[in-house]
Amino acid sequence: MSRPKKCRHLSSCVPCSLFKPNGIPSTELEKIQLEADEFEALHLGDVKKMSQIEAAASMGISRQTFGYLLASSRKKVATAVTQGQALLLPQNINKE
Q1: DSSP secondary-structure letter at 18?
Q2: 68-89: per-residue pLDDT in tens?
Q3: Mind giving me the DSSP string for 75-95?
Q4: Burial profile 63-90: b = 16 or more Cβ within 10 angstroms, e = fewer
Q5: Residue 2: which pLDDT band, with cuts at 50, 70 and 90?
Q6: Cα gap 39→88, rounded to integer Å
Q7: DSSP secondary structure code for residue 27 in this structure
Q8: CA atoms within 13 A on the CB side of 55
Q9: What one-character DSSP code corresponds to residue 51?
């Protein structure tokens, strides 16, 4: 049995629900789901340029967990961009 997920503090606003290649209907594309905590890690680490320690503290998680989330989100974004897939973004992020 795995450990229960820790509550994470999220503050980013997601501008849209889907990011996809131009000119291809979304129904014809493979989709990759970006989770809310992965979106937040990407925002804090790559957009705000926070250190992993600062960003982890902001989210209320360990630095190691933040690193895992950041790596996972980067892989998903890179896969979607390089393979022409749609990226499903999280909706209704609850701010805590």
Answers
A1: E
A2: 999 999 999 999 999 999 999 9
A3: HHHHHHHHHT-EEEPP-SPPB
A4: eebbeebbebbeebbeebeeeebbbbbb
A5: confident
A6: 11
A7: G
A8: 25
A9: -
Strand partners, 87: 19, 32
Helix (H, G, I), strand (E, B) or coil at 31: strand
| AA identity, residue 48 | K
Close Cβ partners of 38 (under 8 Å, ≥ 6 residues apart) = 69, 70, 72, 73, 76
Q: What is the pLDDT of residues 22-31, one digit of tens each?
A: 999 999 999 9
- The 10 Å CB-count burial string (b at 16+, else e) for 15-24 is eeeebbeeee
Q: Tell me if residue 10 falls in helix, strand or coil.
A: strand
- 37 to 15, 20, 60: CA distances (angstroms): 15, 20, 11
Please name the residue that has the structure tokens 């209320």. 60
Whether 82 contacts 27, CB under 8 Å? no
